[in-house]
Amino acid sequence: MKHKIYYLTILAALFSCKKEIKQEFLLPSTTVLERQDSKTIFSKTLAIALEKEPALRTFIKKEALKQFDMDNDVLFQMVKGNEITSGKTFYQVLTQYATSKNDLDNAIKNLPTLTIMVPEVINFSIKSWNPLTEIPKVAVSPENKNFKQISIYDEKGEIINIPSGYLPGFPVVVVKENERVAISAKGNTIMLQDGPKSLEFLSKGDLRFNFVDQAFDGTNNNLTPPSSINSSGLPLNLNSKISRSVSTQAIGSPLINVFNIDQKVVDAYNVNLDWHRDNIYYGLNPNAGIVKGKFNNRVAEYIVSIRMADGNLAKISDEPKDPKDLNKFVTPRPPRNGDPVIKDWTDGFFEFRIAILINAKNGAGTQLNKNISAVGSDLYNLITKQTGNPRNPVYEIIGLEPKDYFINEKLIPWDLENYGAAWKFIVSEFDESATSKKTYNETAKFVTNFNYEATFGEVVKVGLKAGATQETSSSNTFEYVTTTGSDELGEGILEFGSPIILRKDTKSYVGRNGTIVTTEEYITNEVSCGQIFLSIEPRQF
């Protein structure tokens, strides 16, 4: 049975120059083992409270949907004083069910970023959760990535251990420390180097709560989510490149179908030029006698979609196809560092960081930084096998398959006169840890077939490709800021002359009234960055 789980994927589209976060975090004085014990104490108490208090379940769902940190997280220190029922606060409701109030207080003290997260697992998601009828159990997040099992508690204090590589198939919430929030002492407010904005969002006594990065600030709740549409039903061809149809919607209107290719791209393909962007940006069409054209700044490059590489994952075709035992669904987290299967479903959202290095003719290189937030269901389908007690089903992860995740993230128009003929893309999966810097010295070629034309009243491109003129070169130095814990997914190059559409497929099928219907689908190019593929295409805006 195929389970489709649709996730709210909200992300700040950061178009500013690179930034560096200066921070002085107040680190916990407790050990990892002490904090793990504290999470267990809190989890056992919360499990009882969730079973006894429907209002508390409703409250947690409501708060998690706010995504204050761009994930389904509820920071306990933010809401512990909120009223839940009969004049009692969240904290007071919990103390009613604590075996020891003193132990509960110590657990909360040991975990300043204590967070309740609503994960996406089989048969349960924040969207599908009915808090009036579904009572989630409480999972304790593992102490590190090398765990053997995850412990889950019910209202009776009974424990269910989920081994690494398995997923629960019942309602569950996770108690964890928030990796998107850092604690600083009073007077050590975290600031962005490139602006006066503070990352502080909460103050409790002598503690200041800060986002570790501006990309995690969801408190304003005014960000536009990228398009999240499951592409697993679309036909795949040419090494899993995706087939898509032509957009017929009005220029500038909201994307109704994010799978569609812009009509201008298709027109350029039909002109049969080697450089499709010559036609898209400058209107060049030698078939119509047009060999000069001015720059169209109403077209820009977009990161249309991303797709993880298959890597060394288990092949799905090698597994038995028993519909009674196997379930194809989506998973909450992609593999790390070559792991054969997904392990940790308690992480929630993860963060892609894409840096685009663009050489400029004036000597000042442009660097665009894009942050893409997603859950694994946006990127993978899983094959699982049910095991365990049918009342509390557990699913073994057998294998996974990558799929396209459409985001349609706008970049900038490709002004070939002033920008280099090739752009570099650097992709990583962000994990909060110490900041590190890498320096890139990039040399780019510039085409020079641009002249002022009186008939146009401006500078125009003269001739296809680089024309008959000599190319020039220029170098720029870029500083790429990342963290020591981030997973580097690779680098890739996109050239102005790269084809956008690789080929067109014509397909026919019998319609409802018996007539033959013919459709055209286009296979598009991708930028290979090693462990991830980026689909970059121009769009009118």
From TrEMBL:
This is Uncharacterized protein.
